[in-house]
Amino acid sequence: MKEAPQLYQKKILVLGLAKSGFTAARILHKLGAFVTVNDSKPFEENPEAQELLNMGVTVICGRHPEDLLEEGFELVVKNPGIPYTNVLIESAFEKNIPVWTEIELAYLISEAPFIGITGSNGKTTTTTLLFHMLNQDNKHPLIAGNIGTVASGVAEKAKAKNVIVTELSSFQLKGTAAFRPEIAIITNLYEAHLDYHGSIEDYRASKMKLTENQTTEDYFIYNADQPLLVEHAKDCKAQLVPFTLKGRTTTSISADNEFVYWQGEKLIERSKIILAGQHNLENILAATAATLLSGGTKETIIRVLTSFTGVKHRSQFIVEWEGRKFYNDSKATNALATKSALEAFPENIILLAGGLERNHSLEEIRPYMDRVKALITFGETAQRFTAFAEDCGVPIIVQARKMDDAVEKAIKQSDSGDTILLSPACASWDQYDSFEIRGDAFITAVQHMTEANE
């Protein structure tokens, strides 16, 4: 870990604990800062706060005193989930106190370079795929960020031989200042998180901070099929690496209906890639370009692309049984995500969908419902999905109770050559505590049903 003399004996407020706040507070204390932690959870229910107090960190729990910033803090490090409308954050800006997320701290202390990945969709798949490619090529990658591992904790242990492959949300990027990845990837940009950012302009500006400090020594990999990103690339100082699905190019990475190309040369036949879908092909192009720019080999990339089955709960291939392929896309909690999943399979889909009723429109998926051979629906939205599927002309519509019932009914309606796809287009909270639990229930049910019928 690098020393950070600019933080030594600085009075720093860490706002919000959880994993990122606890790690940041511990590292700042280790660096010699005067750290105060403020968290809403009561002290007696807060083991992280108790541990920090034992280290000598000042802890204020159970409330957020509005006059806290009168104590002369020089920096605030906030949990990414805390909105910028928070009274203490607004007060910090009024007093010209910098507000960071722990991503900035990670950058300051890291001996290893960063590869930063962001976008509205595809961040986790791209990050995981890139990590696998670099790992199999012995490039000593470490994985961090929004994918579940606190970046500053990873940076604390990283060495110069490593590279930190970091998934970054707009929440995290908004709180950066000097952060500079050697390779930056933006998979795509759509409208999202407006309740947090307040406007689409702020959301986009937060995402674009990924490239803000890059220089001509760095690389910016971006989706050239999105005019917004093409426009942004004009202002970027890094070397530009566009990717496109619209046909072969000779200067970067591209794909057509048959092949993936690197600088115009055939890299891999698309039919050999396990990860399905146009949206995943974008992720593949981004991860492949980053691997090649990091010194990875084409042989390793091909090996990974012909074996990688996807990130759990994100169009994850589960098993092939009696000619039927099962996919877990439980992370699809809205119609746009389910649209991307349906695009991946041209016909004969047995779709499992439904969940929490939030009155979201289903119209995004209407153009792809002719690919659905049967709909198995469940949860609060079952009746609405039934009416929607009837209007779309889906020939078979069945309502189920929970996941084991849904999988059993899906198998009964399927034939060899069909795809059985869980892509709910709804949140899980009517029946399951998280999309992960819902996806695990699907996997378990598939395993039980296929093993019982062998």
Describe the structure.
The protein is of the alpha/beta class and 454 residues long. The chain folds into 3 domains: 5-100, NAD(P)-binding Rossmann-like Domain (Rossmann fold, 3-Layer(aba) Sandwich), CATH 3.40.50; 104-305, UDP-N-acetylmuramoyl-L-alanine:D-glutamate ligase (3-Layer(aba) Sandwich); 316-452, Protein-Tyrosine Phosphatase, Chain A, CATH 3.90.190.20. 34% of the residues lie in helices and 20% in strands. It has 16 helices and 20 strands. It has a 9-stranded mixed beta sheet with strand order 7-8-6-9-10-11-12-13-14, with helices on both faces. A 6-stranded mixed beta sheet has the order 15-16-20-17-18-19, with helices on both faces. Strands 3-2-1-4-5 form a 5-stranded parallel beta sheet. The chain is globular, with a radius of gyration of 24 Å. The mean pLDDT is 94. Cell wall formation. Catalyzes the addition of glutamate to the nucleotide precursor UDP-N-acetylmuramoyl-L-alanine (UMA). Belongs to the MurCDEF family.
